[in-house]
Amino acid sequence: MTVTVTRDGKIFRSRSPVLHAALAMPGAICYSGRGPDPPEDSGGVIDLHSHILPGIDDGARDWDETLRMCRMAAEDGVKTLAATPHIVEGLYLNETPQIVDRLDELRHRLGGAAPEVILGAEVRVSANLLERLATGAIPTLNGRSYLLLELPYDIVPPGLDRLIFQLQVQGVTPIIANPERNLRIQQHPDLLAPLIHCGVLVQITAMSIAGEFGERVRACSETILQGRMAHLLASDAHNAAKRPPGLSRGVEAAAKLIGREAAKAMVSETPRRVLEGLPVEIPAPVIEEKGTSRCWWFFGKGNE
Ligand SMILES: [Fe+2]
After folding, report:
1. Which comes out higher in pLDDT, residue 9 or 219?
2. For the packed helices 248-258 and 215-226, what is the interaxial angle rounded to 10 degrees?
3. Closest Cα partner for 205 from 41, 106, 84, 287?
4. Ligand 1 centroid to 88 CA: how many Å?
5. Whole-angstrom Cα distance, residue 138 to residue 141?
6. If 299 and its partner were Cys, which of 37, 116, 212, 295 is the partner (CB 3.0–4.6 Å)?
């Protein structure tokens, strides 16, 4: 993976050893991913994580619910919605052709109505993930260079950093899905910082930051946001009732913590770049520590 680092108006493109040195310089900003320079932001809310395809995971039960969820998303302002059914070894054995078939049928049933629906999957960490990705059995988001990656519920699996590196060698940038719901990360949100340093992006869920999964999840979401460790906000919608589509409440909650422009970027500019396979700017994480703040790793106190 090529990583671009800028400092004082200068641009450096390198693999990780040089990146590490460049990031040690004051004012460094990291861009993750690959591809040409970014296009202008054309507007429109994008939701990169939903379980709208019926009958293939624990999401929508049937086409009626799928279409109801799509209408709800559109009414909330979502212009583009990624269908990301679970792929979990031994539980949800979805593969790209099956997902594409359902997606094509959904497009037909929508008949051109919003939202535009996009290919994806939420892929649980597993031993055969790399092999299945290489064969095309697992789809990336919009068929480009980002993969929505799900951690187990309770642990950060050993070897995750190695998996991240191996994905990057294949030209794929992982996006960690809703880490605020992982028990281990709830206890130690700073575990995300070295993963971000390795080049991953982080997606938190709108209902989490809005407090609809409880206080512990909300508090963890706030820590991640305020630590500049969240790059995307998505719905992770599962149904029309208890886990519905829509991002507006999450954006409102996030805006109170990080400002409106930054919150909006998490549902517009950043996911657009992901869908196009373009690099994404990643600020250095900042970990709050007993009333003071410091930048993680070797970014040095006093950095941006
Ligand atoms: Fe999900």
Report:
1. 219
2. 50
3. 84
4. 11
5. 10
6. 295
Residues whose CB falls within 8 Å of the CB of residue 142, separated by 6 or more in sequence, listed in order: 82, 118, 119, 120, 274, 275, 276, 277
| Residue at 252: amino acid letter | E
State the Cα–Cα distance between residues 165 and 142, nearest whole angstrom.
21
What are the pLDDT digits (tens) for 28-64? 344 454 443 333 345 599 999 999 999 999 999 999 9
Backbone angles phi, psi at 192, to 5 degrees: -75, -25
Question: What's the rounded Cα separation, in Å, for the pair 119 and 280?
Answer: 20
Q: What is the pLDDT of residues 215-240, one digit of tens each?
A: 999 999 999 999 999 999 999 999 99
Domain with residues 36-280, CATH architecture: Alpha-Beta Barrel (3.20)
Distance from Cα 194 to the centre of ligand 1, integer Å? 23
Ligand 1 is an ion; residues with CB less than 5 A from it: 122, 236
Could you tell me the distance, in angstroms and rounded to a whole number, from the CA of residue 51 to the centre of ligand 1? 6
**Domain range summary for the chain, segments of one domain joined by +:** 36-280
